[in-house]
Write a structure and sequence with these properties.
Rossmann fold; Spo0b-associated Gtp-binding Protein, Chain: A; 432 residues; alpha/beta; five-stranded mixed beta sheet; 3 domains; 9 helices; six-stranded mixed beta sheet; 21% strand; GMP Synthetase, Chain A, domain 3
Length: 432
C-alpha cells in the first residue's frame, strides 16, 4: 500500500544544566564563580527531499529524538550543544499536531526546511549570578526541558491537474499516453493503489503536472472502499479532469458517474468541488449506438456544458482527441492564479509552554521598592525557549506575561511605570 500517512513521536533535546563551581588557584584563595553554561538541546527539523515520494520511512519507526545538550563545566567551560535531528520528507507533506489536527508545517513551495521543535536552552552557570551583595552564588540555572509532540504527517501531492473517475474508466491509460509516467494498467478495479504523477509537455506552452488519483466509488468521502484514502491528493490541484467511460462498457451511466463523483468531492471538501472541471469522454472508439438512441457524447454535452463544464471526446487507447483536451486544460490553467494551495500554520509548538500549569512567584524586592522579582520553574522554562533579543521572541515573551496573568499580579503588587522587573538573569523596565 502506498505510504502517504504516518504518525510519529518527536522529541527535541534537553538543555544542559549550568554548573556551580568557584575559581581555585594558587594565591587566589577566594576566587569568584566560574561555573559554565550548559549546551543547547538539539532541534527537530523537517526537510524536503526531492528523491522521496512516500512516507514509508516512518511506517516502521515511531520515535525520533534530537540529542540533549551537555552540562557546563568548571573554568567557564560551555557544555556541548546537542545534535539536531533532520527528518526528510517528500514535497507536499503536511505536518499536523496529532491531537488537534491543526497544521504545524506544510513542506511545499518555498518552505523546504522548518524547525518544528526547538531544543531546550542550556542553563546559565553560576558565573552569571555574582553581584555586589552576592559574591558567592551557589545557584546555577537548570537546562530547559525537551519538548515532545506526537505529529501526524500526510502527503498531499503537488500537481496542477487531477484525473478523477470511477475505477477502470481509463485514467491510467490516459496518463501513460500524455506523460512519461508508467502506471500499472490492468482490467480490474483498483489497479491504481497510489497517485501517479506525470509531466505533460505541450509545444508552445509551459506544460503542467498531472496526477492520476486512484478510482473513487460512491461513499468514498465516508470511508467506503479505497477512494477516501486518496481524496486528500486532490486538495492542491487547480483543475480536475473527469474521465468517464462514455461507451458504458461496464454498464454504468457516464452522466450518473460524474454526478456521483461531484457529490463525493462536495462531501469531502466543498471548496474542491467548485474548482474548474473538464470532462474527458473516454472510449469513444468502443461506442455502439443503436438506431433511435442518443449519442452518449452529445448527452454529456447537453447535461454539463450549460453548467460551464466542457466535454472532450477522446480515446486514450488510440490517442484520438488527446491534443484538443490537453490544450484546453493548459488554457484553463493559464487563466487561473499560479499559486498552489499552501496550508497555513495553525499550531505553534512553543505555545505548549503557556498551557503548562507550573508555579511561579511575584514579589517586591524587600531592599528596593521599585524592583519586582519573578521566579519559578514556569519562568525558567519560558526564558529557556525564548530569544529576548529578537522582535518575535520579545513579542512571545510579552504574550506569555499577559496570558499567564503575571502582568495582572505585578499591578496588584503595586508596580508603577519605570519600575524594574527581574527574572533570574534578565531585567527590564515596566511600562504599560
Amino acid at each position: 500500500m502506498f505510504a502517504d500517512r504516518a504518525k510519529i513521536l518527536i522529541r527535541s533535546g534537553k538543555g544542559g544544566d549550568g554548573h556551580v563551581s568557584f575559581r581555585r588557584e594558587l594565591f587566589v584563595p577566594n576566587g569568584g564563580p566560574d561555573g559554565g553554561d550548559g549546551g543547547k538541546g538539539g532541534d527537530v527539523i523537517f526537510e524536503v527531499d526531492e528523491g522521496l515520494n512516500t512516507l514509508v520511512d516512518y511506517r516502521h519507526r515511531r520515535k525520533f529524538s534530537a540529542t540533549d545538550g551537555e552540562p557546563g563545566g568548571k573554568r567557564r567551560c560551555h557544555g556541548g550543544n546537542g545534535a539536531d535531528i533532520v527528518l526528510k520528507v517528500p514535497e507536499g507533506t503536511v505536518i499536523m499536531d496529532a491531537a488537534s489536527g491543526k497544521v504545524i508545517a506544510d513542506m511545499s513551495g518555498e518552505n523546504r526546511r522548518q524547525v518544528v521543535l526547538k531544543g531546550g536552552k542550556g542553563g546559565n552557570g553560576n558565573m552569571h549570578y555574582a553581584t555586589a551583595t552576592m559574591q558567592v552564588p551557589k545557584y546555577a540555572q537548570p537546562g530547559q526541558p525537551a519538548q515532545e509532540l506526537e505529529v501526524r504527517m500526510e502527503l498531499k501531492v503537488i500537481a496542477d491537474v487531477g484525473l478523477v473517475g470511477f475505477p477502470n474508466v481509463g485514467k491510467s491509460t490516459l496518463l501513460s499516453r500524455v506523460t512519461n509516467a508508467e502506471p500499472k494498467i490492468a482490467n480490474y478495479h483498483f489497479t491504481t493503489l497510489s497517485p501517479n504523477l506525470g509531466v505533460v509537455d505541450l509545444e508552445g506552452c509551459s506544460g503542467f503536472v498531472i496526477a492520476d488519483i486512484p478510482g473513487l466509488i460512491e461513499g468514498a468521502s465516508e470511508g467506503v472502499g479505497l477512494g477516501h484514502e486518496f481524496l486528500r491528493h486532490i486538495e492542491r490541484t487547480r483543475v480536475m479532469i473527469h474521465v468517464v467511460d462514455v461507451a458504458s462498457t461496464e454498464g454504468r451511466d457516464p452522466v450518473d458517474d460524474i454526478n456521483k463523483i461531484n457529490k463525493e468531492l462536495e462531501a469531502y471538501n466543498p471548496e474542491i468541488a467548485k474548482r474548474p472541471q473538464i470532462i474527458a469522454a473516454n472510449k469513444t472508439d468502443a461506442i455502439y449506438v443503436e438506431e433511435g438512441e442518443e449519442d452518449p457524447v452529445e448527452r454529456l454535452k447537453k447535461e454539463f456544458e450549460p453548467k460551464g463544464i466542457p466535454v472532450y471526446p477522446i480515446s486514450a487507447v488510440s490517442g484520438k482527441g488527446l491534443k484538443e483536451l490537453l490544450y484546453a486544460v493548459q488554457k484553463k490553467l493559464d487563466e487561473l492564479p499560479k499559486e498552489r494551495m499552501v496550508f497555513e500554520q495553525e499550531f505553534f509548538p512553543e505555545d505548549m509552554l503557556l498551557a503548562e500549569n507550573l508555579p511561579y512567584t511575584v514579589e517586591q524586592d524587600p531592599e528596593d521598592e521599585h524592583r519586582f522579582i519573578i521566579e519559578g520553574p514556569k519562568i525558567e522554562k519560558m526564558l529557556g525557549y525564548t530569544n529576548l533579543d529578537s522582535e518575535k521572541g520579545f513579542a512571545f515573551f510579552q504574550r506569555f506575561l499577559k496570558d499567564t496573568g503575571i502582568l495582572d499580579e505585578l499591578e496588584q503588587a503595586g508596580i508603577q511605570e519605570g519600575d524594574t522587573v527581574k527574572m533570574y538573569g534578565f531585567e527590564f523596565d515596566y511600562y504599560k
